[in-house]
């Protein structure tokens, strides 16, 4: 019974974050899909050294449907930390083709322990801590954003 109720809550949350099919790509929106369903987040882009260094520091909250997308010029091994970050985060490391390679769940606020990602990630999506588990996101989840188009996206923008 608890599992059915949890599944219903996830389905309701997913339907409030998406309205059926995912909308067209936009630079301030990331869509995710997998066997668990689909979700969409409005994102801020961190694509400069300064914006990536600042990230989500010093924010006391973030709306449930929001996140930050960190973009890099080429695939690399990345490490993140939670210095001056006041809210728990799920950190999704993403391949050039827009596939989630690894999820670090519930990164602890203010923790300066390094959080390593896998080799080959070119982007990172940070969302509120616990949402990846709530939705059932796992490695292999596909990510749709216009950034991945130039790398042969698994979920191209025109394919909603």
List the helices and strands and how they pair.
Layout: H1 2-17, E1 29-34, E2 37-46, H2 49-54, E3 66-76, E4 79-80, E5 89-94, E6 100-107, E7 115-116, E8 121-128, H3 131-135, E9 142-144
Parallel strand pairs: 2-3
Antiparallel strand pairs: 1-2, 1-9, 3-8, 4-7, 5-6, 5-8
Polypeptide structure, described:
The chain is globular, with a radius of gyration of 15 Å. 17% of the residues lie in helices and 35% in strands. The chain has 160 residues and is of the alpha+beta class. The model is unreliable at 1-22 (pLDDT under 50). It has helices spanning 2-17, 49-54, 131-135; strands at 29-34, 37-46, 66-76, 79-80, 89-94, 100-107, 115-116, 121-128, 142-144.
Query: Which percent range describes the beta-strand content?
Result: 35-45%
Helix content: 10-25%
User: How big is the Rg?
Assistant: 15 Å
Number of helices: 3
Side-by-side strand order of the widest sheet: 6-5-8-3-2-1-9
Average pLDDT works out at 88
Extended strand count: 9
**Termini distance?**
33 Å
Main β-sheet description: 7 strands, mixed
What is the 3D shape? globular
